[in-house]
Amino acid sequence: MANLRAIRSRIKSVQNTQQITKSMKMVAAAKLRRTQTAFSALRSFADKSGEILSQVGAGASENPYLNAHAQRDRVCYVLIVGNRGLCGTYNTALLRYLEDRQKKDGREAFLVVAGRWGKDMIPTVGIPIRRSFEISDTPSSAEARELTDYLRQLYRGGEADEIVLVFEQFKSVLSQTPGCKTLLPLTPPEGGVIDSSNMIFEPDRDSLLDALVEMYLDNSVHAALLEARTGEHSARMTAMTSASDNTEELIGELTLELNHARQAAITTEISEIVGGASALSSKQH
Amino acid sequence: MAEGFHLSVLTGDGTIFDDRVDYVNLPTGYGSVGILAGHAPMLCAVDKGILRCTKEGETLRIRVSSGIANVGNNEVTVLVSDGKME
Question: The CATH number of the domain where A65 resides is what?
């Protein structure tokens, strides 16, 4: 009988786990929807500013962000990790990617981390961490601007000659691949070259270009943050869906086992009664 | 000229305004700039302030932060970091 009770309590505990994984899946799905909406809102803005930048940014300029430093020795990696675990290989795959990249690159590097995950995992890569930023589950443009301001400072102060964003690129809900994007020095996006010779610039081309570049940088960082978060939420949703499916299967197996045990117990009981009864009747004769 | 032009006001967090208007008045660092349909291509810096646009005789006000406005092809695109309909 002890066996029966043990199986029942296991079923109970697996059911509890299932409840947790199911609600985590639902939370991830809701957050995914929110980041996706924010991402598509940003996209029209980013497309437009990129388009204008490609018109104005063509040709030489004095803008510090468009011109590379004479030497490109120091790299700053901006590692955008998730806020939590329980999302499959989302974070670890990204970390492995960074490790490989740094091994191949070999230049002096440091890290700026955006996200809460991996306080003890990230240092194992062996790249010193300069600063960590807290980024919410649906990054706002204000959060992105704070991070971008810091990165701009690093670049202009000469502490970094190249700033590379390292994050999980969103392919679909089921697939994200680690990748990187060079933020600074900035290469203006390719665009249809529109004749801007008769365009009016108010106040003048250079200061407009400065403003545009600032905006473009903010956008790029914001887009990367949102893309990474979208990936995180979908990775967690996928992981939690398969965890829920697994618990379902486990409950099925355990129920089967429980029925077997119960059947066995009943059979034993019946044979005991029958045995007892026949013993009694044989005694009477 | 009567048919107006397209105005869109975009921020990183979403689109604030996207419609046809007859007239738009942009706040800039050197005073406000009025734009009617058929304006020459122009790129201008927007300063924080109130953007006014007129649509069928009705005036709408949008509070904007600094950014950029692109005028051309009979459409005006205003890119600002922050903005709110008033």
Answer: 3.40.1380.10
Q: The whole model's pTM is what?
A: 0.86
Print pLDDT tens along chain A (285 aa): 458 899 999 999 999 999 999 999 999 999 999 999 999 889 888 888 888 888 777 666 778 888 888 888 899 999 999 998 889 899 999 999 999 999 999 899 999 999 999 888 899 988 999 999 999 999 988 899 999 999 999 999 989 999 999 999 999 888 999 999 999 888 877 765 566 667 888 888 888 888 888 888 998 999 999 999 999 999 999 999 999 999 999 999 999 999 999 999 999 999 999 999 999 888 776
Would you state the structure tokens that stand for residue A86, as one six-digit string? 């329980």
ipTM score above 0.90: no
Active-site annotation holds for A87: yes
Query: How many domains would you assign to chain A?
Result: 1
Q: Is A54 on the interface with B (CB under 8 A)?
A: no
Are B70 and A48 inside 8 Å of each other by CB?
Answer: yes
Query: In this structure, which topology does domain B5-85 adopt according to CATH?
Result: ATP Synthase; domain 1 (2.60.15)
Does the residue A34 lie in any domain? yes
Inter-chain touch A49–B42, beta carbons under 8 Å: no
User: Which range marks the domain in which residue A46 is found?
Assistant: 25-239
Q: Which of A149, A200, A205 to mutate to test the interface with B (most CBs of B within 10 A)?
A: A200
Please indicate, yes or no, if residue A199 is contained in any of the structural domains. Answer: yes
